[in-house]
Amino acid sequence: MSRQIILTPKAAPPPPTYSQAVRAAGLIFVSGTAPTNPATGQFQGDTIQAQTRQCLTNIQAILEAAGSSMDKIVSATVVLAEEEDFPGLNEEWLRWFPVNPPARQGAKLPVRVPGLKVSIAAIAEA
After folding, report:
1. CA angle, corner 52, sides to 63 and 74, nearest 5?
2. pTM score above 0.90
3. From edge to edge, which strands make up the β-sheet containing 3-6?
4. What separation, in Å, do the N-terminal and C-terminal C-alpha atoms of the chain show?
5. pLDDT, tens digit, for every residue of 94-125?
6. Are 48 and 81 in contact (CB under 8 A)?
7. Distance (Å, rounded) from C-alpha 41 to C-alpha 15?
8. What is the C-alpha separation between 62 and 33, in angstroms, rounded?
9. Over the stretch 8-40, which tens digit does the pLDDT of each residue have?
């Protein structure tokens, strides 16, 4: 099975330990994506809604670079710093996925990163 590394400057660059995404087996596997503004390198937004929006904007750019799109996401993993942000996350999530949302699972961030409220990973059809 071949795999293709996906990298776009329209989303924040990943650290050297993983790729933005990998295309394999007819799917696009998007790594956990922080709410980093690719133009500034800084976290975008102070609210969970704004950070969720930036994460999803980054994922959208990565999927487009891979020839896919947000409506092809089949599964997502959302990792929150604080469980009380769950309602705000869902508020923004529903703006992006108003009908037929992808499967989703959640977790709590295992480490504290100052200013980081959410990270989102996704799997989409290629």
Report:
1. 45
2. yes
3. 3-6, 21-24, 27-33, 118-125, 73-80, 103-108
4. 15
5. 999 999 999 999 999 998 999 999 999 999 99
6. no
7. 12
8. 10
9. 999 999 999 999 999 999 999 999 999 999 999
| Cβ–Cβ < 8 Å for 124, 62 | no
Q: How far apart are CA 78 and CA 26, in angstroms?
A: 22
- Report the run of H or E that residue 80 belongs to, with start and end: strand 73-80
Running DSSP on this structure, what letter comes out for residue 114?
T
CATH superfamily of 3-125: RutC-like (3.30.1330.40)
> Any idea where the domains of the chain sit in the sequence?
3-125
